[in-house]
Amino acid sequence: MQSTSRMGWEDFKKVINEDLTEHGWKKKSETKEKDFAKKGFKYTVYQRKNSSNKGVDEVRVEAEMKDVEPKLIMHYFLNPPKDSMIKEMRQLHVAPNGDTTVYWRLSMPMMSDRDNVVVFRQQELKDEGGIFVQFMNVDSDVPVVKGVIRMEQ
């Protein structure tokens, strides 16, 4: 399997430190501060046009959680709740460095099912005191299912 993602660790650090307004990021969604105080979780979702791939937008999610160990975040992504939009999920490969390749098939309201093969990579941010989880689409031997749209970028 070969990664089709163009973002490496250094690219990520550059993007995460960008001034949002100067680089075209537009806020799409966020939690209210009172919900963070009550539930211990908040997020902000940003979106911008991808200059190198027309028609595919870039999405950036910044999240903060109180009293959550980083390894639990990775566990959540690899073991999502049964009531989510995930119709099918299979672990295909776990590399020695912990990178985990997963097949996901998603069922969304009023849309055709989507699927993709992604690699989850977890990296501690020692200086920033957080965690980075990257989803990278990869080329795969998993056959495309008739009537399901393959998300490749």
Structure report:
A hairpin with a 7-residue loop joins β5 and β6. With 153 residues, this protein is of the alpha+beta class. It contains three helices and eight strands; from the N terminus they run αβαββαβββββ. Strands 4, 5, 6, 7 and 8 form a five-stranded mixed β-sheet that branches. The chain is globular and about 40 Å long.
Task: For the structure shown, list the relevant keywords.
five-stranded mixed β-sheet; disordered N terminus; alpha+beta; 40% strand; 3 helices; three-stranded antiparallel β-sheet; 153 residues
Give a quick summary of the entry.
With 153 residues, the protein is α+β, with helices and mostly antiparallel strands.
Shape: globular
Helical element count? 3
Largest sheet: 5 strands, mixed
- Which range best describes the helical content: under 10%, 10-25%, 25-40%, 40-55%, 55-70% or over 70%? 10-25%
Q: Give the amount of beta strand, in percent.
A: 35-45%
Order of helices and strands: HEHEEHEEEEE
Q: Whole-number radius of gyration?
A: 16 Å
Query: Strand tally, please?
Result: 8
Overall pLDDT: 76
Structural class: alpha+beta
User: Stretches where pLDDT falls below 50 for ≥5 residues?
Assistant: 1-6
Distance between the termini: 15 Å
